[in-house]
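Whiteboard transcription, Tuesday session. T.W. wrote the structure tokens on the left side:
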């Protein structure tokens, strides 16, 4: 659904050389700024690029435009800022990459989360308004969005291909996983075509929107008749801890396909910046199975050769337990 090539604006530059202590002279006078020379030459984590962009859906994109730290000692990544904060001592975080990885894994395993807030990520995103409405619920980010009061919205609408139109799920009221079988079933093909025509019709309102603004209707009023498959843009800045929280929720199979496509691209952009953190997060969060007390009890009984029924009369909870048990390799009767 999205191009996997990351577009970078410029070629990678040379490392910034470390200065000798003589070159950066600390000013000892009261009120003077004391500067410390880096022990190791610094490199730009974005490789000198102004942005690293991945195209998503038909007109959207997500671009990493900045990060903190951006300059890191050669041979290191932004993981070093997490380690540095966890050790609360300058320089110690740069000693042994293996120890750093172990510390990061320990921090994530034990949900010692604040060191992960030391890394900041800034994205420029262009997404359909219905995706933006889900995205904005993640309140810990800083957001600045395109103003349709100030400017005319560009003519960009999200329209899925016919073979990407999804049916309403019967099991999950919020879900739509199954695709219309447009190649096998004539009725499915017609329904999918009807849906795409319906989107074409609402897109037709764009001309009326433009005409009304030309006739003097304010932009802030004219835009209220536009549909939510229209694209908007924003800058989104968030710390790594909350970005990983966003990703855990929006990469999940229960999240809507369209926001999942952006989350997958976001993960692709950040993984090279914080490889040890992403590795640990995949191990302890994405690939993990969280068990409730009732589920632990059922698992114990299963191990003792007894009934693995969950002590709950809630059918959804029992179905979730069956799913988790299957993920653990047990098929419940
Ligand atoms: C699959 C899926 C389906 C969903 N369906 C619906 C739906 O039907 N209707 C709906 O309304 N929403 C829905 N949501 C949105 C969901 O309820 C959350 O609002 C959204 O996922 C953001 O999660 P969050 O609150 O953890 O994130 P954030 O807002 O980023 O919060 C991160 C953490 O900070 C804490 N925090 C943030 N702000 C505050 C604050 N002001 N005070 C105290 N603590 C704060 C949060 O408790 C949380 O622990 C859905 C989300 C998903 C992933």
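and on the right, the sequence the group agreed on:
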């Amino acid at each position: 659904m999205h191009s996997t090539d990351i577009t970078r604006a410029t070629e990678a530059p040379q490392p910034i050389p470390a200065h000798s202590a003589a070159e950066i002279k600390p000013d000892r006078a009261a009120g003077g700024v004391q500067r410390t020379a880096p022990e190791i030459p610094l490199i730009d984590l974005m490789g000198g690029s102004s942005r690293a962009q991945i195209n998503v859906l038909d007109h959207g994109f997500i671009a990493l435009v900045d990060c903190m730290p951006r300059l890191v000692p050669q041979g290191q990544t932004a993981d070093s800022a997490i380690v540095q904060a966890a050790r609360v001592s300058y320089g110690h975080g740069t000693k042994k990459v293996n120890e750093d990885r172990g510390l990061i894994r320990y921090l994530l395993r034990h949900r010692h989360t604040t060191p992960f807030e030391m890394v900041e990520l800034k994205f420029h995103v262009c997404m359909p308004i219905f995706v933006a409405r889900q995205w904005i619920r993640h309140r810990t980010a800083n957001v600045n969005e395109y103003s349709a009061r100030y400017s005319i919205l560009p003519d960009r609408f999200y329209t899925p291909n016919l073979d990407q139109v999804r049916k309403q799920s019967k099991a999950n009221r919020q879900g739509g996983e199954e695709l219309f079988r447009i190649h096998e079933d004539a009725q499915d093909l017609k329904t999918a075509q009807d849906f795409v025509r319906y989107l074409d019709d609402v897109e037709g309102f764009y001309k009326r929107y433009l005409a009304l603004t030309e006739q003097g209707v304010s932009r802030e009023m004219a835009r209220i008749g536009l549909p939510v498959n229209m694209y908007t843009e924003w800058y989104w800045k968030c710390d790594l801890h909350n970005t990983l929280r966003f990703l855990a929720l929006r990469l999940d199979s229960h999240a809507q396909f369209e926001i999942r496509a952006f989350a997958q691209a976001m993960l692709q952009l950040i993984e090279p910046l914080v490889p040890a953190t992403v590795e640990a997060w995949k191990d302890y969060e994405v690939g993990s199975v969280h068990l409730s007390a009732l589920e632990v009890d059922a698992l114990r009984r299963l191990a003792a050769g007894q009934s693995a029924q969950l002590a709950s009369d809630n059918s959804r909870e029992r179905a979730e337990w069956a799913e988790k048990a299957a993920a653990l390799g047990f098929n419940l009767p």
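Someone added at the bottom: Residues 137-140, 174, 242, 245, 249, 254-255 surround flavin-adenine dinucleotide (CB under 6 Å).
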